[in-house]
Amino acid sequence: MKFYGDSQSGNCYKLQLVASLLNIPYEWIELDIKNGDTRTESFLKLNPNGKIPILELEDGRVLSESNAILNFLAEGSELVPKDPFERAKVLQWQFFEQYSHEPYIAVARFIQHYLSIPKERRLEYESKQVGGHKALQVMEQQLGKTSFLVGDHISIADISLFAYTHVAHEGGFELSKYPNILNWIQRIKELNRFQPMKSV
């Protein structure tokens, strides 16, 4: 199978991390969004939405959206709970990640880490701080009750949220305010076959 993505993207890193944890072999195809790699005719045939990451199977089938790919890759593994309610809780956290977490923390990281907070995006950056801290507070509260987001065993919910949370400081979020999150980050980093995000 092939993964198409940008190694500095949290959404793309999710795939690398789950594949490493589950020892899934794959070919990585690095794309440069700024260079227009996702707007080429060949890429748009794979994903008309023009976004990464995508998964291409050996038979040519293609799957997009990072959390959908995580669910596919982890199906039947210990990263997906067998209990229907707990599986629904995993999905709950993944929807939370896409709607209440990523739009704030990932965007703030992009504005600060990649653009150095240009003047014309200062107000946007500051507004993202509010939503990002709200999301981190929700996670902090849950991780004060359980070791991982859905109980005491890691799931793809944790992988979904780990991707951008562990680099949230690159978006101006001071994680020392969230000791439960810091402990959770460390637990994930200590897992067998953990793969760190590639540095710039």
From TrEMBL:
Positions of the GST C-terminal domain: 83-200
All copies of domain GST N-terminal, residue ranges: 1-81
Keyword vocabulary terms for this entry: Transferase
Any one GO molecular-function label of the UniProt entry: transferase activity
Pfam families: GST_C, GST_N_2
Signal sequence, start to end: none
Classification via Gene3D superfamilies: 1.20.1050.10, Glutaredoxin
Superkingdom of origin organism: Bacteria
InterPro entries per the UniProt record, alphabetical: Glutathione-S-Trfase_C-like, Glutathione-S-Trfase_C_sf, Glutathione_S-Trfase, Glutathione_S-Trfase_N, GST_C, Thioredoxin-like_sf
PANTHER family, per the entry: GLUTATHIONE S-TRANSFERASE-RELATED, HYPOTHETICAL GLUTATHIONE S-TRANSFERASE LIKE PROTEIN
Protein name, UniProt field: Glutathione S-transferase family protein
